[in-house]
Amino acid sequence: MSQQEQQLPVETAAQPSGAASAPQEAVDEQAAAQSAAPITASITTLGVRGEERDDFTKAESKRLRRRSLALLGSLAAPLKARLVLLAVVVVVSTAGTVAGPALIAWGIDNALPAVLDRNDWVPAFGVVATYIVVAIAGAVLTAWYTVLAARISQAILFDLRKRVFLHTQRLSLEFHETYTSGRIISRQTSDLDSIRELLDSGLNQLIQGVLYMVFTAIALVALDPTSGLVLAVSLVPLWFLIRWFQSNSQTLFRATRVASARVIVHFVETMTGIRAVQAFRKESRNRDEYGGYVEDYRVANTKVFNLFGTFDPVLVLIGNATLAAVVIVGGFRIVGGSLEVGALLAVALYAKRFFDPAQELAMFYNGYQSASAAMEKISGVLEERPSVPDPVKPTRLADASGKMDFDDVVFAYNADKVVLPAFDLHIPAGQTIALVGSTGAGKSTLAKLMARFYDPSQGSVQLDGVDLRELDTKDMRRAIVMVTQEAYLFSGSVADNIALGKPGASREEIERAAKAVGAHEFIMALPDGYDTDVNKRGGRVSAGQRQLLSFARAFLADPKVLILDEATASLDIPSERLVQEGLETLLADRTAVIIAHRLSTVAIAHRVLVMEHGRIVEDGTPDDLIAGTGRFAQLHAAWRDSLV
User: Fold this and answer.
1) Cβ atoms 362, 313 nearer than 8 A
2) 351 CB contacts (<8 Å, ≥6 apart)?
3) For site-directed labelling of 465, which of 181, 260, 279, 584 has its Cα 20 to 30 A away?
4) Of the residues 354, 383, 412, which one is the last residue of a structural domain?
5) pTM score over 0.85
6) Containing H/E element for 615?
7) Is 70 exceeded by the pLDDT of residue 4?
């Protein structure tokens, strides 16, 4: 910090998750507050310390599955007609596939004797032609089914991706300060990919496998009821095997999803905060932590592979034993003359094929467990409700004057710590006030209540006499604008970023806003001027220049109430002097609240409020407070002495 500039103690402004200046509780995996827990009496997927849970009880697991199925049902509801068509196609195609061995049996037992005894080739040609037609029809229908299933799955995924994005965007700041950006990315990437894999191929395996087993069993019993009894006996060990597999795989697959999410969260947070990582030489610690998460993921997947290593061989053993039993019983019956050779061949084929889909169903269950765990987490996000909801019957306030009032406001982030106890404040329209105070005094909390990022626990915050909770959201966002310490720039041109304050603004309006806050000169020095692509997070411009662009954005928005939450913290001394005139222009004819970082910024305020422990301990003009003996006078004296 320059010796020419005495700074007041800084209270870091709360930013969206992932911001470099966000408070620790907004990004820390060990956040104690569960402010993102759903308002409804539903199951949270976050533990008491903010980590992903994998210790659900049986009752919770059932409720989670019901919740996931309800979400999937709502996604499939608009596709009923296509789902019915899909069902018809898959039933017909599966029936055609199963008909093959029965046709072979009829050909051996009936068509072949007709050729040998009477030289009658008609039945033989008929069965061969039927077999070919059925095979072609089955192939065509299977291809049609595959295309229909793919279109349905893509439609469901499109709807789900859109729901997650739009819903997450609508959630309040409270959610984003608790639910880290890494988890959100995990929901949109690995979790949705698991669901995509299930919809793209898993459902095909399930539907075709179940139908194939059912039709195969029906055909086998119709050809030879005795062989059907042998197959029925084999279902007993098969049932126990599947139950064992289900009971173990559910826990294991949920553990893989949790481990996967932790890997992604750690990677995203490391890359997002790479400057801090390199500045504080955290690479080796990150290596060890990341290595631990990757090892946990490897171990979780190894347990899954071991599960399949037991399931698959036992399944094959049951299938082979059943086939052997069918052939032995059938062989004795052929000798006794109660079974034809063709029928034995057909039932042997059916017995063999009956267990083939069982392996595919196990693979489906693999994907299902992974997708089910992912769906649980996604449905958990979609169940979140904004802690700052839109009013049911909004009050319109098209032309606000900018008068702000805090009436008996009490606010607490959690029940254990009240930040603002019984707070009252009245700000006349057009007045500029500066908030100063030590870290944790409640300055940024006050600003977030004014911008309605949070609602007070008690009391009301009003704009022109209307409670912000009752005010039309569009009118409120148009009337109140907040500029934070982190001037976030989106990928795109400089002009596009300034125009966020007023979509559709002309180039003349954009340039006028930039000139008003002193940003025009450096913008014109960029490679393409206002058309320069700032890249991700404004990489082409400095921190101070990004702040000037955020001022231009706010100036273009032309709000009635402007909140500057340590918005000059990123400016160096020359940049701050350059922007002082721009600030006076920006603050003119509007209500303004400045969370003061530097005493030079306080000088432009009409009124200074000194806060301590959520209360106003001093209130007056800068000159009056300087002339006194209070906290602000002491700070000003220290700043003045530093200039000597």
Assistant:
1) no
2) 220, 227, 230, 231, 322, 323, 326
3) 584
4) 383
5) no
6) strand 615-620
7) no
